[in-house]
Amino acid sequence: MAFPGLQEAAHPEVPFGTTMLFAAILVGLIASMALEEKLHAKKSLIVGIFAVICLFLGAVLLPLPFGPYEIGGQQIDLPIYIPAINWGVIAIILGASLFVDVTAKSGLFTWIAIRLTKSSQGDPLKLLWYYGLMTVAFSAVLNNVTAMIIVGSLSTVSLSKLDRSDKLLGFLLIEGFLTNVGGLLTLISSVPNIIVGTAAGISFVTFFLKASPFVAVATVVSLVIGAKVFGIRSLATGEERAEAARLVDGFDENDGIESEAFFWFGAVMLILFIIAIATASVTPYINDLGMGFVALTFAIVMLIRYKHEVDTFYQTIDWDLLGFFAALFVVINVMEHAEVLALIGVGLERMIALGPTLGTGAILVSAALFSSVTDNIPLAAMLAKIISDIPMAGGGIRPPTDPLWWAVIFGANLGGNLTPIGSASTLVAVTIIHKQKIPLSFASFVKKAAPFALAQIVLALIYVLFVM
């Protein structure tokens, strides 16, 4: 169970046939998520249907612990699906999303992007590096989808004004790939990070220190490959440079700033938000309340600026994502009681038994491959739960530095670059590409993505197995 302080009875033995039935349901869920676009259904509805099926069959076939539950020394009656949800993760996503949405209204992110464009003087190669680094930075402090929307939209406008629309395909694909690299930089920059980091007890600072060397190298390698693959080069003549500089001078970074005071307030609050999240695990009282409390607090402070229209921001919350998470945690909880996770854990234990090098590498590659064809969120949640239940060779709790945690984190994030359906941010990149009437099929995407994904996964294997 995911509810803090919840005590749970030991599982009576579950018949193997029942376990296999629920395993088939889990396979059905994964297949449905992979075919989300074909089904024309939102992910929250898909997982919600499976959650209802799991709960009903669980009530009939499994010895589910229906309560009362002991929480903080008190006996409390709760519906079983309430303590099954990890409310800390829900609070982080809700608070961070609201905070970013309001901060974006200050014009801060657009200002940064246009300043970088002007600094490049319109040189395509410089612009690629500046936008690539901006993509990684935005993905680290925002979510990948928001980062891709902001950078992708600005790339479309900038390249059009610079008469470089022929380079748009390369820019958008490289930026899409880099969102998943940048998503590795901090604990809150991608949902798999939050899920696995919470299960492993990895602090914000530890996560950043462990992941940043890889992100730095992978970013440089990805940009070098991208410039070569898509033929993005520096301007060759003085006339080209002068013309590009003239076009760039037409950009105005202050266009999106409604209030200078709110602009600077947003900048200060963003810095404080990062600091507060980074120190949440060591700050007295805050460490008991958790990062979800920090995220919600900063969201509320920012919403004061729009106190008469906060409902417009509530409408932009990704309720589909939150509903998806709530239902997913319920499904995973039932799968745990059905011994499905234990069954999968046997397979993982066999991988781990291959040795610290081969076993960890197999888990990283497997996580990447599965993430390329289905949503990496349920994969990360399932693997985090299973690994936390697999005992250490010498006994004791698996430490935050254990390579297995990081194999799942790197695999779940980087696997999304293999296919256009592997991550939400690459899907956004493909959507922008199609809106610009640029042809790109599924097979063409995979062909163009392969050098990037393979290089990143190989770097991740080397880093996790031999450097961390």
Characterise the protein shown here.
The protein is mostly helical and 468 residues long. Helix content is 70%, strand content 1%. Strands 1-2 form a two-stranded antiparallel ribbon. Residues 1-10 have low confidence and may be disordered.
Strand order of the largest sheet: 1-2
- The tally of beta strands, per DSSP, is 2
The low-confidence parts are: 1-10
The biggest beta sheet reads:
2 strands, antiparallel
Helix content: 55-70%
What is the overall pLDDT average? 85
What is the distance, rounded to the nearest whole angstrom, between the alpha carbons of the first and last residues? 31 Å
Shape: globular
What proportion strand? under 5%
User: Topology as H/E string?
Assistant: HHHEEHHHHHHHHHHHHHHHHHHH
Structural class: mainly alpha
Count the helices. How many? 22
- As a whole number of angstroms, the C-alpha radius of gyration is 23 Å
Kindly summarize this structure in a few lines.
The protein has helices at residues 16-34, 36-39, 43-61, 87-104, 108-119, 124-141, 144-161, 168-182, 191-200, 204-229, 238-248, 260-279, 286-289, 291-303, 310-316, 319-337, 340-352, 358-373, 376-389, 403-414, 424-435, 442-467, and strands spanning 69-71, 74-76. It has 468 residues and is an all-alpha fold. Strands 1-2 form a two-stranded antiparallel ribbon.
